[in-house]
Write a sequence for this structure.
């Protein structure tokens, strides 16, 4: 028997009535483990059909799983909600202390419903929930400041998560983030805007409970095995040393680094925004998510002199990763790191999604240069590749939305390009902006059809890189992506960080589940992954996802990838395969 | 007897592996039993503090215990006799560095026994056992 303990407890918070209650959902946790598996089911139950993402009827589900608080690098929380950005299922994962705090506060999931009339922040302290007046915090420009204030007044230092939004969330920019512990995010699909629409400025969760296991000895053994693998693996070392930005040079050499709105797949100045360069010149500190020995979070130190005062500096710590460097750096033609770091900091403070913002700004720059949009539309901001003063100004205006163009840009490139033109070079896939890999067909298939539209889904970029020089039949590509994606549903139900996916192989997972009382074979797990995959697509389709309607922007066919120029015919065939797969899978019984 | 020491707190990345290890001594997950506390010193960018028992020669916690549940340990620090403990919390309040944690589940203090189990889980050698 599974020892679920407090994992099966679901905390429901109703912001409209300022009420909360707990329900035991052992049924769901026994069947779906936790995380994304359980969250899909909870969302399906709670979300009215065709709900408006920015109305009180939208629901936020935060879920953790049986590995959080028990095994290393199981440090993520899954958020499911209806996305204001794509109008479809939104999924986002964040680390920091979020997962540990939720689990040790005694919950497997938190469901947030309704909307508050006044700005609030909600503080969950074990069994008690407090609704706090956040009027004084509403309108504060920086999410950093909000975090700092809450840190002072709430208990649980070191054991709590402070999830909060910035101005972008308040202003309901459709790709506003929720920031946790300053440098981690629920990114991409606009959870921040959903928080904003509910007048929820922040969610604080604190807890320090124990987690019982079925077999103590076996638990310690399984733990030691995994811990050893993680600290000794060269794979994890790479995340620790240079971090994800190690990709910049690598992808640039391959000709897969999307640059200047994908007019190029290489950037001359890539060396100056590479992980190696940043580590050498700017790295100030490495930090880790709770219960993860890897410490992949790299913080750069930016020292800016004040013009009017000699020897007076503003020192800022800026978290950097590969994706922000791609989107806010390469895509905007960065020539040096300082402008890029300043832009990352502004984007972070406002609580915008870095990847989406970068792609939006890149589209706008090209649109402006081609005369699709005017200087007036831009409110006088002179967008130009590498001009970071202009980009910082434009990012602020996306939040404040002073002109029609910025209002449109606050809803992403698809929306903006439909209104203003330039659809051919608007790098949107099913409403979501592309990630940083122009590696080949598999990457683009995952952007368009992926089950998450964040976290790179089934890692098409990786399949592309492993198959350079070969041309796989479209059916095979789609099948391999499906297998990978189905397995990832298991990992995100447990919930482990995807960076540790090479550690948490099926055999290791099955072994580690035993002391918790889950008796699942590798085969059972693989089946479960497929089942969650199916349930997720059913929900997606229920909410209006139309695989047949997927279209690829023309630009991706104009710039060579490591697989050469992509062929529209090939992509069309692959699309048909994906559509067939989704149809087949969602029709399955059981 | 050996004592647990914080060698270089600047190397700490806040991973909490040590805290989890301490709780796991009893074969449990979570943090309820951890005698170590790691917290940022005002935002993770500033770094962390690692609070562990200093193994005092003349421990303040023992001095204020009304039931003598805490007895001095040879080589520094204290040993808890849980049977005698009435859960008054004097010891936790008396420790000037906050190294006496509280176990809310048993309503008793958590006392570091300087076993060094945590040290093998700190990948950055922040913690060590000194003899
Ligand atoms: S590998 Fe990085 S992102 Fe993943 S849990 Fe560890 S510190 Fe967090
Ligand atoms: S809590 Fe227990 S050990 Fe601490 S002072 Fe009180 S009786 Fe003594
Ligand atoms: S294990 Fe080491 S690096 Fe991690 S929190 Fe503890 S002292 Fe810091």
């Amino acid at each position: 028997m599974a020892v679920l303990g407090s994992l099966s407890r679901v905390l429901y918070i109703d912001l409209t009535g300022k009420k909360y209650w707990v329900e035991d959902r052992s049924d769901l946790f026994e069947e779906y483990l936790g995380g994304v598996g359980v969250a899909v089911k909870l969302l399906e139950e709670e979300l009215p059909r065709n709900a408006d993402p920015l109305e009180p009827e939208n629901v936020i589900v935060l879920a953790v799983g049986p590995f959080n608080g028990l095994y290393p690098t199981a440090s993520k929380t899954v958020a499911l909600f209806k996305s204001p950005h794509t109008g479809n299922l939104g999924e986002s994962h964040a680390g920091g202390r979020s997962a540990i705090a939720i689990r040790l506060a005694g919950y497997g999931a938190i469901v947030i419903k309704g909307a508050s009339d006044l700005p609030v922040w909600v503080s969950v302290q074990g069994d008690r929930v407090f609704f706090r007046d956040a009027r004084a915090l509403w309108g504060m420009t920086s999410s950093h400041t909000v975090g700092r204030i809450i840190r002072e007044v709430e208990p649980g230092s070191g054991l709590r998560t402070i999830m909060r939004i910035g101005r972008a969330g308040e202003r309901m920019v459709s790709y506003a983030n929720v920031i946790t512990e300053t440098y981690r995010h629920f990114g991409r699909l606009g959870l921040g805007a959903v928080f904003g629409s509910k007048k929820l400025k922040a969610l604080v969760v604190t807890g320090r409970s124990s987690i019982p296991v079925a077999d103590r000895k076996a638990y310690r053994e399984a733990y030691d095995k995994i811990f050893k693998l993680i600290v000794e693996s060269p794979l994890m070392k790479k995340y620790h040393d240079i971090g994800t930005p190690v990709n910049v040079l690598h992808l640039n050499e391959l000709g897969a680094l999307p640059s200047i709105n994908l007019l190029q797949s290489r950037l001359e100045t890539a060396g100056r925004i590479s992980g190696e360069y940043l580590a050498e010149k700017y790295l100030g500190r490495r930090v880790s998510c709770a219960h993860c020995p890897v410490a992949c979070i790299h913080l750069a130190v930016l020292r800016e002199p004040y013009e009017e005062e000699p020897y007076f500096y503003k020192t800022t710590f800026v978290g950097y990763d590969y994706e922000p460097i791609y989107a806010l750096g390469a895509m905007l033609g960065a020539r040096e790191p300082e402008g890029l770091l300043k832009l990352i900091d502004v984007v972070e403070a406002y609580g915008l999604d870095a990847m989406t913002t970068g792609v939006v700004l890149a589209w706008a720059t090209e649109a402006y240069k081609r005369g699709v949009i005017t200087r007036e539309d831009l409110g006088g901001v002179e967008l130009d590749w590498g001009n970071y003063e202009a980009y910082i100004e434009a990012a602020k205006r996306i939040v404040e939305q002073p002109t029609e163009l910025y209002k449109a840009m606050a809803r992403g490139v698809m929306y903006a390009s439909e209104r203003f033109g330039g659809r051919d070079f608007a790098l949107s896939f099913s409403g979501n902006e592309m990630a940083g890999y122009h590696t080949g067909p598999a990457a683009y298939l995952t952007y368009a059809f992926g089950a998450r539209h964040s976290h790179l889904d089934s890692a098409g970029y990786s399949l592309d890189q492993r198959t350079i020089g070969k041309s796989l039949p479209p059916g095979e590509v789609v099948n391999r992506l499906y297998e990978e994606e189905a397995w990832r549903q298991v990992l995100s139900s447990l919930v482990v960080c995807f960076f540790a996916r090479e550690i948490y192989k099926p055999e290791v997972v099955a072994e580690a589940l035993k002391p918790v009382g889950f008796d699942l074979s590798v085969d059972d797990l693989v089946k479960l992954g497929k089942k969650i995959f199916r349930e997720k697509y059913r929900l997606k389709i229920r909410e209006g996802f139309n695989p047949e309607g997927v279209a690829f922007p023309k630009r991706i066919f104009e710039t060579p990838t490591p697989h050469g120029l992509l062929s529209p015919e090939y992509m069309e065939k692959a699309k048909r395969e994906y559509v067939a797969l989704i149809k087949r899978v969602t029709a399955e019984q059981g | 007897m050996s004592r647990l020491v914080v060698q270089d707190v600047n190397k700490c990345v806040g991973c909490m592996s040590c805290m989890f290890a301490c709780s796991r001594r009893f074969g449990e997950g979570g943090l309820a039993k951890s005698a170590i506390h790691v917290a940022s010193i005002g935002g993770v960018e500033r770094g962390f503090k690692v609070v562990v028992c200093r193994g005092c020669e003349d421990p303040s916690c023992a001095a204020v215990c009304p039931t003598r549940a805490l007895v001095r340990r040879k080589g520094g620090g204290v040993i808890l006799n849980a049977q005698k403990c009435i859960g008054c919390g004097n010891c936790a309040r008396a420790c000037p560095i906050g190294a006496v944690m509280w176990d809310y589940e048993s309503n008793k203090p958590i006392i570091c026994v300087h076993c060094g189990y945590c040290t093998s889980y700190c990948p950055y050698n922040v913690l060590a056992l000194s003899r």
Remarks:
- The pocket of iron/sulfur cluster (ligand 1) is lined by residues A 73, 75, 95, 239, 288-289, 292, 294-297, 497, 499 (CB under 6 Å).
- The longest strand of chain B covers residues 3-6.
- Chain B touches chain A through 30 residues (CB under 8 Å).
- The first helix of chain B runs from residue 17 to 24.
